[in-house]
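Weekly structure sync, notes
Attendees: PL, DS, HV (note-taker this week)

Item 1: Neuronal membrane glycoprotein M6-b
DS walked through the input record. Source organism listed as Pipistrellus nathusii. Sequence as pasted into the shared doc:
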Amino acid sequence: MSCFECCIKCLGGVPYASLVATILCFSGVALFCGCGHVALAGTVAILEQHFSTNTRDHAVLSEVIQLMQYVIYGIASFFFLYGIILLAEGFYTTSAVKELHGEFKTTACGRCISGMFVFLTYVLGVAWLGVFGFSAVPVFMFYNIWSTCEVIKSPQTNGTAGVEQICVDIRQYGIIPWNAFPGKICGSALENICNTNEFYMSYHLFIVACAGAGATVIALLIYMMATTYNYAVLKFKSREDCCTKF
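Item 1 (cont.): predicted structure, written out as tokens:
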């Protein structure tokens, strides 16, 4: 067998769907965790400097955000390992393994492990749909603040007395209590907040984090198809040679 034929045979056994899903999963989780971590820190800074000057008013929120930052570390570590495991499972259920290591039969243990991956991937997919929806909440909040600032900057309202009547009350989102001071920012003070680096960076980082969560959902959907197909082959061809290329 020539070197070219050997390379073609090896490439023919690569689980491309699992490989694409792994790359997409790593990219999505990295964007979500990295950008989300920095954006949460920026959000705390904005709240402390402008919307809640008393630390006791947002003490609970600060603890929750700190806990979420630690959870982000765990998510990144878990999906790094889980992505590698699923990619390895995809490789070991392809024809490349049969060509390299000889004929083999499926076992009950192998089918059980494959079924466990199917179930776990479905659970993670549903969970990440919730994460994706939750990550859109800060984007919505920052978008409302940004759009209010754009109204203030518009020629129709800029320089008029009505500018100071345009306000954003962060307390209505429920992230700080109603007795927080000042809680509401109006007019030129709100415009100054929108011009800060913290607001600009946090807003765009939340958008990227939301996109990363969406990419992870797509990756898990691909994993679902790949693991389900592999399990079906192991289940219905348990008495034959296992050979998948998904």
